[in-house]
Amino acid sequence: MTKRTYICGLDAAITVMGGKWKGLILFSLGEEGPLRFGELRRAVPGISERMLILQLREMEASGLVHREVYHQVPPKVEYSLTEFGSSLNTALAPLGEWGEEHMERIEAIP
Amino acid sequence: MTKRTYICGLDAAITVMGGKWKGLILFSLGEEGPLRFGELRRAVPGISERMLILQLREMEASGLVHREVYHQVPPKVEYSLTEFGSSLNTALAPLGEWGEEHMERIEAIP
DNA sequence: TTCGGTACCCACACTTTTGTCAGTAGGAGT
DNA sequence: ACTCCTACTGACAAAAGTGTGGGTACCGAA
């Protein structure tokens, strides 16, 4: 949130995909296409409703995801990746592969 | 730090490169080769000594960086990427490029 | 004897992030 | 009338992250 300019591209990228969850949300939306709130919640195990909403709001504000409201009862809201979000997702792919490859080693760290 | 298994590779990767700094440290070490503590501090603008040390300790424990002590006075300690750290750095490259490409858009977000 | 330079460590306080547990709207089904 | 369903919202507190200002050790130089 500091108004200064980022020191490099990686810095900027890390800022937009913030904490622990945004990457996973991006990943889920990329893999499974548009998802409604409840589906997304199930797609990202361990996240609380509150966290999911907060993250989605930020990602919407960043232009990473699109929020489509269907005026129904009970309510239905669908989240999907924008072009921007999709491009981030692509850039994130190698990182995901790296994680897969070194999964055992990473799990042994704590 | 939770002992459960990660839900995907991206999850695992995000865990090892933790917060805001580890990616930048990795990047600096990758670009400028082995660096001593003070040099690293200058290479990552805005980080405090305390943070740098904490992050380096964690990264050492994760096997991402190697710490080489030279028994001199005044002290000299050099940090460098391990193979493991280097591979993460490579996987991080596309993310850095993405950030560069969309820098303006990202800066306009807050 | 005092000072400079390097790489740290420690205690404390503050800020940000994350979790928990309630509660709301409003039409449909019973 | 009452309950169910979904997507939220809000208050509160615990946990994690981060900054600040000090201190330590060591040896050589002045």
Over the alpha carbons, how many angstroms does the gyration radius of chain A reach?
15 Å
Main sheet: strands, sense, barrel of chain A = 3 strands, antiparallel
Structural class of chain A: alpha+beta
Q: What percent of residues of chain A adopt helix (DSSP H or I)?
A: 55-70%
Order of helices and strands of chain A: HHEHHEEHH
CATH architecture of chain A: Orthogonal Bundle
Question: How many separate helices of chain A?
Answer: 6
- Point out poorly predicted stretches of chain A: none
Identify the overall geometry of chain A: globular
Assembly of the depicted chains: homodimer
| CATH level-four homologous superfamily name of chain A | Winged helix-like DNA-binding domain superfamily/Winged helix DNA-binding domain
Compute the average pLDDT of chain A. 91
Please report the two chains with the greatest interface, counting residues with C-beta closer than 8 angstroms to the partner's C-beta.
A-B, 47 and 47 residues
Total domain modules of chain A: 1
Q: Between the first and last Cα atoms of chain A, what is the distance in angstroms? A: 30 Å
Give the CATH topology of chain A. Arc Repressor Mutant, subunit A
Provide the CATH top-level class of chain A: Mainly Alpha
Number of DSSP strand runs of chain A? 3
Residues in β-strands, percent of chain A: 5-15%
Q: Major sheet of chain A: order of its strands?
A: 1-3-2
